[in-house]
Amino acid sequence: SMFIAATFHWTAGFGFSAGLVDFALSLNVPIANQPLMLLVLGLVMFVVYYFIFDFAIRKFDFATPGRGENAVTEAAITDSEDETSSGKKTTASSTSNSKYAQMAHVIYDAVGGQENIRSYYNCATRLRFELDDVDQVDQSKIKGLGVPGVNVLDKNHLHVIVGTDVQFVADEMKKIEE
User: Are 116 and 132 in contact (CB under 8 A)?
Assistant: First the structure.
């Protein structure tokens, strides 16, 4: 797109970020040459990129968030039977109807429950665990929830990347310990 804009001499007087405010301020700058054509070019490139990437993702089966082996379905969560740390068997659907509660139960059990968890807290997108032994963690069970990632930092620290809903999952985990 830069090549096309340069070829046709479509310019704007961007100063810093090349964002919307910068663009609006540059409309009356003398060095701007047909700046509205940049909007047209942007729309055309959006369509081109969309169809190219859509084709490539489908054709070559590229893994993307929400697709593939990490994709989770409601049936996979509600039909799964998990053994809790107290030893009794419960179905995720019977413990709560909340998807966050179901996620919390699966993560709690997968990291080893009360016996393995020293402490945990959450930041903006992650559950951060301090564990007795990271080797006890069933990462495939956690990834089966469709979380964006599981990071093992060392033998005692693990991050489960949940996303911006992490606070709800952390709140449900606190209820499990009560």
Answer: yes
- Output helix, strand, coil percentages for the chain, rounded to the nearest 5: 50, 15, 35
CA 41 – CA 43 distance, rounded (Å): 5
Is residue 139 a contact partner of residue 151, using CB atoms and an 8 Å limit?
no
Candidates 124, 99, 117; CA nearest to 158 is 117
Report the alpha-carbon distance of residue 155 to residue 73 in Å, rounded.
Answer: 31
Q: List all residues 6 or more positions away from 44 whose beta carbon is below 8 Å from its beta carbon.
A: none
pTM beyond 0.85: no
- Structural contact between residues 154 and 134, judged by C-beta atoms closer than 8 angstroms: yes
Q: Is 13 exposed, middle or buried (0-12, 13-18, 19+ CB in 10 A)?
A: middle
The Cα 88–Cα 53 span in angstroms is: 47
pLDDT of 68: 57
Question: Is residue 81 helix, strand or coil?
Answer: strand
Residue-wise pLDDT for 78-111, tens only, equals 444 444 444 444 444 444 458 899 999 999 999 9
Task: Give whole-number Cα distances, 38 to 20, 47, 81, in Å.
Answer: 12, 14, 55
